[in-house]
Amino acid sequence: FSTSHAKGEQDAAGSHVKQKVSQAVLRRTATITSARSMHDFLVQHFSQPAPSSFSARTKSVQLKRRIFHFVPSSGEESVVRNRAGRKFTELKGIRKLHCVKTTPQQGKVFVRHRSCYCISCIVNDEENCTNKAWLDEWKPVELTREGDVATTRQATEAPILDHDTASYIADLASKGSTVAIAAEDDPVYGFYLLQVTSDGVEELDSNVTDDYQCHYYRGDRVLKGHFYIKENIHDMTFTIDEKWKVFVHAATVCHICGDLPVRKRGRKSIYKLPLKENEEIIASM
């Protein structure tokens, strides 16, 4: 029976299994000498969960039965472990390297002798690293496989990306999408909603200033659009401020919303943010 060193929910289940088996052996009510006999014992005595002594848990945990699978060490149903080409040779001098970065290309990594955890490096903006003077340049290294060469389908079909490329949730946005941006120190808005008017994320080719007098610089990756303005705080309704054009950094987008329900009130369009969508936005921040 396998667990994950107390890192997941399955470990709680694992502790119950081991306790059940240990108690049976100590009380001499079962003889367990192999994985097969352990499996048979559990199927017979532990498939049906006992009722909880806590009434609250009985209602919240809908556990009907436990299912156990036996995987033989050899034969047709066993795990095939001798698969050539799945191991790589050790990177020479790895003990002297303090920074290794993987890439989408199989077998290729970038290494350097020092690591940096400044804000720019954490958000993959290494060009603005505050510790550049003390860092060496990235060096590409090709790792070799042990045994036969095997290339996975993912490696052959996936494009090779620049190792400095950062992907954001905003990259999934398109024209007409509604995205959420976390708001800081705003007493009215916990987050901002933006209706996207650009064809997805754009990279600025010159410095610009939007209608809110916020400055953006050449090379910044941004979304263009209009902010939603709260119409009613209590029922989470909004209107769109189409008079003011705004830019937002792609990295600040935390959630992409579905289509918001809309109704007409005279000439105005009133958008309603569903409660579930509101909860998903808060959870993403």
TrEMBL record:
Top-rank taxon, per record: Eukaryota
Query: Organism, per UniProt?
Result: Pocillopora meandrina
What PANTHER family does the entry give? Answer: ADF-H DOMAIN-CONTAINING PROTEIN, ULP_PROTEASE DOMAIN-CONTAINING PROTEIN
- Biased region (Basic and acidic residues) positions are 1-10
Protein name per its UniProtKB record:
Uncharacterized protein
What residue spans carry the region label Disordered? 1-20
